[in-house]
Amino acid sequence: MDLSTTYLGLKLANPLVVGASPLSDHTHVARQLQDAGAGAIVMRSLFEEQIDAEQRALRHHVETPAESNPEATSFFPNFTEYQLVPDHYLRQIEDLKRALTIPVIASLNGFRPGGWTEYARRCEQAGADAIELNLYQLATDPTVAANQLEADMLETVGLVIGSVKIPVAVKLSPFHTAPAHFALELEKIGARGIVLFNRFYQPDFNIEELEVAPQLKLSDSSELLLRLRWLAVLSPHVKGSLAASGGVHSTRDAVKALLAGAHTVQVVSVLLKNGPRLLTSLLTGLRSWMDEHGYTSVDEFRGAMNLARCPDPGAYERANYQKILQSWRV
Ligand SMILES: Cc1cc2nc3c(=O)[nH]c(=O)nc-3n(C[C@H](O)[C@H](O)[C@H](O)COP(=O)(O)O)c2cc1C
Question: Can you list the positions of beta strands (E) in 197-270?
Fold first, then answer.
């Protein structure tokens, strides 16, 4: 049975990918994930702000040597603090590459065009097989229109792509006005894959203390549905790779994402809850499902439930929306 898939031009033994998270922080954990069957691993993100801070500190250091300037001396702890983080990131890429045989995908997280994007080249030089660029942001400025935000994002992605030879995937938010159009714009400028979707960590309110209460809840399978819809919409149009990220907790979830058109299925929450060995049971389940349904390769059924044969997906969605509302009786 052939579980292999091609993602961003990389040949993976199977479509299960460990998504960006602390699961890549220790090489021994990454090894366990590989041994349990991971097809590839995405590292946690290095943030635009971290890289900017390092670059600012470097410039400051060169132009105003610390020993000749008390202000710079007081600045120096910040400098070391910030510089070490990106450096450590590069060392972690090297360590993972030494420890693993599966592809290692570095993750950068930023949305503004700037010098930080060149860091992608350093990740490439450290051995990363691909870059996943997470465009996480909350569009809170009422003076900035959607087209301006998207223009900045496209410029940012273009800068990252322009600085490396390895493939670049873009991890998107589900909150674009026209996600299908934006995905194709990303492809036009050279993105090799789209990761659907970024997950927003939504702070709650504490109504006793009148404080904002940050929280990090792990996902459940209900979050997959949003991904399925957009995978099914994008799959017929996108020439490159699609990855599902969010709400994959079982073999059934993984199969659904593949049927919708995903080339890879990223998992994080379920591994944080259950540990690396869960990957093995997901793979065993995938093989049994394929066996029961007479498939011998993942390629045979990928996208079988996308909207390729639907003449007007927008009308189809509106029709289903109306049907579901009309079906409720009191
Ligand atoms: C603890 C934790 C840390 C994460 N760190 C990152 C990160 O650094 N960069 C990123 O793009 N996504 C990060 N994510 C998001 C995951 O990559 C993934 O998109 C999200 O958890 C949805 O997948 P899941 O339902 O399988 O958990 C993180 C998620 C968790 C739970």
Answer: 204-206, 211-213, 241-245, 264-267
Say which range, 53-62, 224-233, 280-289, has the weakest mean pLDDT. Answer: 53-62
CA of 60 to the centre of ligand 1 (A): 34
Q: Which amino acid, residue 241?
A: S
Ligand 1 contact, 45 CB (< 6 A) = yes
Q: Inter-axis angle of helices 251-260 and 278-292, to 10 degrees?
A: 60
Tokens standing for residue 192:
């090799």
Domain span at 319: 5-326
For residues 14, 304, 238, 161, the Cα torsion angle rounded to the nearest 10 degrees is -10
CATH number at residue 303: 3.20.20.70
What are the tens digits of pLDDT across the range 53-100? 887 777 766 554 444 344 443 433 354 544 347 889 999 999 999 999
Question: What total of structural domains would you count in the chain?
Answer: 1
C-alpha of residue 20 to centroid of ligand 1, in Å: 5
Angle at 128 between CA 127 and CA 134, to 5 degrees: 155
